[in-house]
From TrEMBL:
One of its GO terms (biological process) is purine ribonucleoside salvage. It is an enzyme of class 2 (transferase). This is Adenine phosphoribosyltransferase. InterPro entries: Ade_phspho_trans (IPR005764), PRTase-like (IPR029057), PRTase_dom (IPR000836), UPRTase/APRTase (IPR050054). Pathway: Purine metabolism; AMP biosynthesis via salvage pathway; AMP from adenine: step 1/1. HAMAP family: Aden_phosphoribosyltr. The keyword Cytoplasm applies. The gene is apt. One of its GO terms (cellular component) is cytoplasm.
Length: 170
């Protein structure tokens, strides 16, 4: 199944000059969602995972499905002010500004094998900040996987030391 047929391109969102890749048509198709999940799992192979970390918010969709399939825990990385317990925080640059992400400071135990998932790898800033949070808590990143990668933004360069995989490349 060609999953690129389920990605809608929206120009000038969230601001002029940005080309947004919308995954809601994919999520609206049970067949495409299932095929995408299987392709993400194939990228991982048979490696053991203790916890899947998903980045807010679109990363949550497949991160929770991956965690379920892998019989692993799920950990959300969220935008500031959304988590109710003690947190750690990292700043990062977006292709259209700056932001922060947070996770609970007790979410990962030293040595936990981690799969980091997000819907898109763009500039790599969010993924790099997420990797820093995970490693700060002692997690071992087995793979960073993405539904899609915007290759022209060279985000892979920011997380070059990791196994980086993506189902679709634009």
């Amino acid at each position: 199944m060609d999953l690129s047929n389920y990605i809608r391109t929206i120009n000038d969102f969230p601001k002029p000059g940005i080309v947004f890749k919308d995954i809601t048509p994919l999520l609206n198709s049970p067949e495409a969602t299932s095929a995408c999940l299987e392709q993400l799992l194939e990228l991982l192979g048979d490696r053991k995972i203790d916890k899947v970390v998903g980045i807010e918010s679109r990363g949550f969709f497949f991160a929770t499905l991956l965690a379920h399939k892998l019989q692993a825990g799920f950990i959300p990385i969220r935008k500031p002010g959304k988590l109710p317990h003690k947190i750690i925080r990292r700043s990062y640059a977006l292709e259209y500004g700056d932001d922060h992400i947070e996770m609970h400071e007790d979410a990962i135990e030293k040595g936990d094998l981690i799969l980091l998932h997000d819907d898109v790898l763009a500039t790599g800033g969010t993924a790099k900040a997420a990797c820093e949070l995970i490693e700060h808590l002692g997690g071992v990143i087995v793979q960073c996987n993405f539904l899609m990668e915007l290759e022209f933004l060279n985000g892979r360069d920011k997380i070059a030391g990791y196994d980086v995989q993506s189902v679709l490349k634009f």
